[in-house]
Please model this.
Amino acid sequence: MVLPPAIKKLLDMRVVRVAAAGGAGVIAQTIVFETLGIWLGWVRPSTAVLIGAELGIIINFTLSNRFAFGDRRHTSLWGRLVRFHIVVAGALVIQWLCVYLTETTTQDWLLIHAAYAAGLIISFFYNYTGYRLWVWRHTPTL
Model:
């Protein structure tokens, strides 16, 4: 399939590919968050963030490793997966804190959803930096 030049240029940008991979992970995490924490109420929303996160992490890692950073393979797959989990653990703390602090002060579902979204946005920048500098860091060839 031949893509228009503007679309091809956009897809060549690593940050766009990282955002797309992360978006797929966020969709999976959000489905779990909404289902377990909001609709069914089986767990607190802050707990649902963490439960859905692992599914999102695996999806995000798989897509990032293949498409966003496929040109960078400087460590083993296992090494990259461990590093990825370490970076994402920090993002999960950010997301969890945003939701937890909100749910302890209000039961307003709109505010809890806003806190969830804020945590995701802050986490994107945190994750992208960690991915580039540590998980898939570029090692110049001599």
Remarks:
- The mean pLDDT is 88.
- The chain is about 80% helix and 0% strand.
